[in-house]
């Protein structure tokens, strides 16, 4: 439910300022209002929903500038994690990362988008944990959680899964040879591209929603 509602917000189907009615959502997803409240709470923590006393939940306004700022922070954090992973990962962790990456090529060939999304999350988690810096891992994962719906939007663009895999390959290659600077540069470039791809998709969704909202001529 959280993912479904988040996707509606990110793609512009649910627009900034729209009220998210608990009863309507419970009926849509065929659940009681309790899981709906929990879903809205999680969406609030992600910054996608604004919950106010006596007003209920409404879709938060996320400006392009603020989204760009969040992705800028994410790119820097990922670069730090990739650099530290190149310097600190154990031999076993490096081999596991490389094997995991190679195995994911099958998903690319099959066009298995949902399966690749799960792999993508695991891949980045391995980078964060490979940094062997608990605090950096914590703040990086928190930032990723905030951006998760927007990062997921990128995979709906043509050929994005294949391009993502190729970008991962550059990060893995740098980590395998212990090149921290190259790993950081590859990771930062990867998140910057994710930011651009996500922004394109989100903008397209918002434009479509705006067109649908216009009165018939």
Protein model, in words:
The chain folds into two domains: 2-61, Winged helix-like DNA-binding domain superfamily/Winged helix DNA-binding domain (Arc Repressor Mutant, subunit A, Orthogonal Bundle), CATH 1.10.10.10; 64-205, Four Helix Bundle (Hemerythrin (Met), subunit A) (Up-down Bundle), CATH 1.20.120.530. Helices cover 75% and strands 5% of the residues. The chain has ten helices and three strands, in the order αβααββααααααα. The protein has a three-stranded antiparallel sheet with strand order 1-3-2. A hairpin with a 3-residue loop joins strand 2 (49-52) and strand 3. The two termini are 36 Å apart.
Summarize the structure.
The protein is mainly α. 75% of the residues lie in helices and 5% in strands.
SSE diagram, text form:
Blueprint: H1 2-10, E1 19-20, H2 22-29, H3 33-45, E2 49-52, E3 56-59, H4 64-88, H5 91-103, H6 105-110, H7 113-130, H8 134-153, H9 160-176, H10 180-213
Helix pairs in contact: 2-3, 4-7, 4-8, 4-9, 4-10, 5-7, 5-9, 7-8, 8-10, 9-10
Task: Throw out a few tags for this protein.
217 residues; mainly alpha; Arc Repressor Mutant, subunit A; Four Helix Bundle (Hemerythrin (Met), subunit A); three-stranded antiparallel β-sheet; 75% helix; disordered C terminus
Order of SSEs, N→C?
HEHHEEHHHHHHH
| Structural domain count | 2
- Which fold name corresponds to the CATH topology of the largest domain? Four Helix Bundle (Hemerythrin (Met), subunit A)
Structural class: mainly alpha
CATH superfamily of the largest domain: GntR ligand-binding domain-like
Shape: elongated
Beta-strand content: under 5%
Helix content, binned percent? over 70%
User: How does CATH name the architecture of the largest domain?
Assistant: Up-down Bundle
Q: What is the count of DSSP helices, taking H or I runs of 4+ residues?
A: 10
Give start-end ranges of low-pLDDT stretches: 204-217
Provide the CATH top-level class of the largest domain: Mainly Alpha
Mean pLDDT reading: 84
User: How far is it from the N-terminal to the C-terminal residue, by CA?
Assistant: 36 Å
């Amino acid at each position: 439910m959280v993912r479904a509602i988040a996707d509606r917000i990110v793609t512009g189907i649910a627009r900034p300022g729209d009220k998210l009615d608990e009863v309507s959502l419970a009926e849509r997803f065929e659940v009681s209002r309790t899981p709906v409240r929990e879903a809205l709470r999680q969406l609030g923590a992600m910054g996608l929903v604004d919950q106010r006393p006596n007003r209920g939940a409404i879709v938060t306004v996320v400006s392009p500038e603020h989204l760009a700022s969040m992705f800028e922070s994410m790119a820097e954090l990922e670069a730090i994690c990739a650099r530290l992973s190149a310097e600190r990962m154990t031999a076993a962790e490096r081999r596991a990362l490389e094997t995991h990456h190679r195995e994911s090529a099958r998903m690319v060939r099959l066009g298995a988008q949902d399966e690749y999304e799960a792999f993508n999350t695991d891949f980045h988690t391995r980078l964060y944990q490979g940094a062997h810096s608990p605090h950096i891992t914590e703040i990086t994962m928190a930032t990723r959680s905030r951006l998760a719906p927007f990062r997921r939007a990128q995979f709906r663009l043509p050929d994005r899964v294949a391009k993502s895999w190729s970008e991962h390959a550059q990060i893995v290659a740098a980590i395998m040879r212990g090149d921290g600077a190259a790993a950081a540069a590859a990771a930062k470039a990867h998140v910057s591209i994710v930011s651009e791809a996500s922004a394109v998709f989100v903008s397209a969704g918002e434009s479509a929603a705006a067109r649908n909202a216009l009165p018939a001529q």
